[in-house]
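Appendix B, Record 12. Input sequence as logged:
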Amino acid sequence: MPYQLHVYLTDTHLVGEWRSEKLSVRYYAVYEKKHWITHEIWGGHIRHNIIFRWVHNDERELIADEYVTDKYNLMQRRNQNWKTIDWKNR
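Logged structural output:
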């Protein structure tokens, strides 16, 4: 069964959806469950994220809350602005 990934931008979000000719029996919503920033001994900062997804059945009932991944990003400051470098996904 072929799938198509449809992605677009709003003013505030990157939005995506999987499309198919056959109806899905599961629906997902990905979200950031927890995040925090740590000050490291060498003087820098690390942003930590834990990503989960809600799993819904074909009747849109929540059936699971699943772990997806952890992310760790080095934060660097340049001219009073913070920027994030995603070392894990480079």
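The mean pLDDT is 86.
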